[in-house]
Backbone:
């Protein structure tokens, strides 16, 4: 897959210039879940700035609030305290003009074709059929599914379904793409292939990506920066810059630099176990 030529979308223009402010700014964010018996502090004083065009990965132990933080960035959950801004404005509700989201499950409608699944958010917004069909075809071409638009989900492999999900996240051309463990359900070989495909798409479109994962290898392989979180209440305990050259190659996985970065993350995770 790494040899595929980049295919920018005809209707999704790669970013030529970006503002100097952070694409995503999280300031002193906290989240408290109220239950019938007690208040559960999920996140405490989390601050993070993601510059435009960067690929940032968030890792941490299960239950540390990684996905909760991502949902705040998506406008799908409101924080108890602090602020979250996307491209300089608060994100108070889902805003597909600013943010696309890809979840762990592809969540495709089984009665719709791949093309129709990608079109769906555009149809909800009343985009003309001819325009949304063209955008969907462009998005499927970008994720390597040209010629598969008429297939239904049951005719697609797990990796192909996730490609459709990524295409759906991209079709409205948001500057920010949030991804919540999108490859967790895939086998190791497919997961590595999808990682390479995602890096190709990211390079072609210039999106800002925030990606949640439990895999330390995946984190280092994909990221410009890795944010490490503590157990609940989730806090940032490390923020690593990943100096590995791009494009990334499988040979890097056995290199000393890669190992040191992965081990640094693991020491934080192990300490919190």
Residues:
């Amino acid at each position: 897959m790494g040899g595929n030529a980049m295919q920018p979308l005809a209707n999704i223009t790669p970013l030529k210039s970006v503002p100097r402010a952070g694409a995503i700014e999280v300031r002193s964010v906290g989240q408290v879940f109220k239950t019938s018996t007690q208040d559960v502090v999920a996140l405490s004083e989390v601050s993070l700035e993601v510059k435009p065009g960067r690929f940032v990965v968030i890792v941490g132990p299960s239950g540390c609030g990684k996905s909760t933080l991502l949902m705040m960035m998506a406008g799908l959950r409101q924080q108890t305290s602090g602020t979250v801004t996307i491209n300089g404005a608060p994100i108070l509700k889902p805003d597909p003009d600013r943010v696309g989201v890809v979840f762990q499950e592809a969540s495709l409608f089984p009665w719709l074709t791949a093309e129709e699944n990608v079109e769906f958010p555009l149809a909800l917004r009343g985009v003309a059929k001819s325009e949304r069909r063209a955008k969907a075809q462009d998005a499927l071409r970008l994720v390597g599914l040209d010629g598969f638009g008429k297939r239904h989900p049951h005719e697609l492999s797990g990796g192909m379904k996730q490609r459709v999900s990524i295409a759906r996240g991209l079709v409205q051309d948001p500057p920010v793409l949030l991804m919540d463990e999108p490859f967790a359900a895939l086998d190791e070989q497919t997961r590595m292939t999808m990682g390479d495909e995602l890096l190709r798409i990211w390079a072609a479109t210039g999106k800002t990506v925030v990606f949640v994962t439990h895999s330390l290898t995946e984190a280092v392989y994909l990221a410009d920066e890795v944010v490490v979180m503590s157990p609940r209440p989730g806090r940032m305990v490390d923020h690593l810059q990943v100096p590995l050259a791009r494009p990334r190659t499988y040979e890097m996985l056995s290199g000393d630099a890669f190992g040191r970065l992965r081990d640094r993350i693991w020491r934080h995770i192990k300490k919190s176990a």
About this structure: The helical segments are 66-73, 114-124, 129-142, 158-170, 188-205, 216-222, 256-272.
